[in-house]
Amino acid sequence: MRYQHILVLTGAGISAESGIPVFRSEDGLWENHRVEDVATPEGFERNPQLVHDFYNQMRQSVKSKQPNAAHLALTKLQREMEQRQGRVTIVTQNIDDLHEKAQSHDVIHMHGELNSILCSHCGKSYEWHEDCDGTTECKFCGHKTMRPDIVWFGEIPYHMDAIERAIMQCDLFIAIGTSGVVYPAAGFVSYCSRQGKPCLEFNLTPSANSGVFTHSYLGKAGTTIPAFVDYFLEHDALPDPSAL
Ligand code: APR
Q1: pTM for this structure?
Q2: Where does the pLDDT of residue 229 fall: very low under 50, low under 70, confident under 90, or very high at 90 and above?
Q3: Cα separation of 125 and 143, whole Å?
Q4: What is the pLDDT of residues 120-142, one digit of tens each?
Q5: CB-based contact 9:166 (threshold 8 Å)
Q6: Tens digits of per-residue pLDDT, 65-99?
Q7: DSSP state of 15
């Protein structure tokens, strides 16, 4: 097999066809909110109830969302690679659980998860599927200091050690549905490309860092990813971008 370890970075675009809105739209608003109000520690300090309501609503709404053909194709890629003694690590910036619903494993949520809450007092986090607000007690320390377990702007992403290892070890890097403007994720491609690894971009339109990728596959992920996976598994090679 030409490639043994594939690192896949996913962003909001992979879940768009499942009905979950992407972050960056033309009006700069995210579900009618300013990002500073709902995705920064300062916003949470200013108005915790607004932020709780925002993520509570999203947590409930994502419950009914299903993985699309792109998520499912990644699961197929992961299974087939493992049968051939290879490996696929999925690093996602998404806070939804669609990779898990698609039965993928080895999924690293670098920006946190909707189905988890974090105690600002004791620092512990745990799985959570209900609404959360200023009255929710931490199951560990009992303080009413719970917040969404989401990495907001100005905070350090999770699992960076494991991600760094995957960046060093992979021999193929694939980014799917991410705009390439939020760091550190937007910088992963540069590390991989400096090491001479093929770097593949899948997006509707070229992302902000498109020039660093060696291959750019444009189109809806729900169409391009299954086509890519089938070609890749059959030919043990990368398809020409015009072929998908
Ligand atoms: N198929 C492929 N790509 C798509 C599709 C689709 N069906 N729909 C949208 N896209 C692409 C868009 O062209 C865009 O480049 O997905 C990308 C989504 O970009 P963003 O909304 O910026 O999402 P993302 O890159 O994941 O954001 C990164 O920013 O707001 C923070 O923490 C948040 O994790 C998030 C991070």
Answers
A1: 0.97
A2: very high
A3: 13
A4: 999 999 999 999 999 999 999 99
A5: no
A6: 999 999 999 999 999 999 999 999 999 999 999 99
A7: H
- 171-203 in b/e form (b: 16+ CB < 10 A) is bbbbbbbbbbebeebbebbebbbeeebbbbbbb
Residue whose pair of structure tokens reads 């050690």 in the numeric block: 161
Pocket test for ligand 1, best of 33, 62, 158, 204 (most atoms within 8 A of CB): 204
Tokens 């750019």, residue located: 216
Query: What would the two tokens of residue 154 be?
Result: 């100005």
pLDDT band at 29 (very low <50, low <70, confident <90, very high): low
Check if 23 has its Cβ closer than 6 Å to any atom of ligand 1: yes
Q: Note the helical H segments in the chain.
A: 13-16, 35-38, 41-46, 48-63, 69-83, 98-101, 160-169, 188-194, 221-235
- Given the CA of residue 25, which atom of ligand 1 is nearest to it? 21
59 closest CA partner among 7, 171, 136, 165? 136
User: Hey, what are 124's tokens?
Assistant: 């512990």
Rg (CA), the chain: 18
Pocket perturbation via mutation, ligand 1, pick of 91, 92, 179 by most ligand atoms within 8 A of CB: 179
Burial group, residue 244, by CB count within 10 angstroms (0-12, 13-18, 19+)? middle
With CA atoms as reference, report the closest residue to 32 among 11, 58, 13: 58
Task: Tell me whether residue 111 is one of the annotated catalytic residues.
Answer: yes
Q: How far is the CA of 127 from the centre of ligand 1 (A)?
A: 25
Cα 54 to middle of ligand 1, angstroms: 19
List the residue whose alpha carbon is closest to atom 19 of ligand 1. Answer: 179
